[in-house]
């Protein structure tokens, strides 16, 4: 089995089209979002960035995109993941501070 057939099989399973370049993640904004909406949006953005990086890497394997686009997509996914981890750490820290408060 050669690399192109393996990539094609993976693309079919993941639902990635090889002819269309990956779409940029869409962002929705509202007038006054709640904290829950902000966290949900950050998580959704991180997931979208991960999917985009996966699509670009698959397209790079078959020669449909260049390495600079791959580097940008992977960098965006890494930045989104670091943001989610920072949010998680802050939430855990806040929970620990609240749980240590005297009643």
Brief descriptors of the model:
single chain, about 100 residues, mainly alpha
3D structure, described in words:
This protein has three helices and no strands. It is mostly helical and 103 residues long. Helix 2 (35-61) packs antiparallel against helix 3 (67-99). It starts with a helix and ends with a helix. The mean pLDDT is 80.
Short recap of the structure:
This protein is mainly alpha-helical and 103 residues long. It contains 3 helices and no strands.
Topology of this structure?
Elements: H1 3-14, H2 35-61, H3 67-99
Helix pairs in contact: 2-3
Q: Distance between the terminal alpha carbons, to the nearest Å?
A: 65 Å
Quaternary structure: single chain
Radius of gyration from the alpha-carbon trace, in angstroms: 18 Å
Order of helices and strands: HHH
């Amino acid at each position: 089995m050669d690399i192109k057939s393996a990539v094609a099989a993976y693309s079919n399973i993941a639902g990635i089209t090889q002819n269309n370049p990956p779409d940029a993640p869409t962002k929705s904004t509202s007038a006054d979002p709640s904290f829950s909406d902000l966290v949900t949006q950050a998580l959704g953005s991180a997931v979208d960035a991960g999917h985009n990086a996966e699509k670009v890497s698959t397209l790079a394997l078959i020669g449909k995109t260049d390495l600079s686009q791959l580097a940008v997509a992977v960098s965006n996914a890494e930045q989104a993941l670091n943001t989610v981890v920072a949010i998680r750490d802050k939430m855990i820290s806040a929970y620990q501070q609240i749980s240590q408060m005297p009643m």
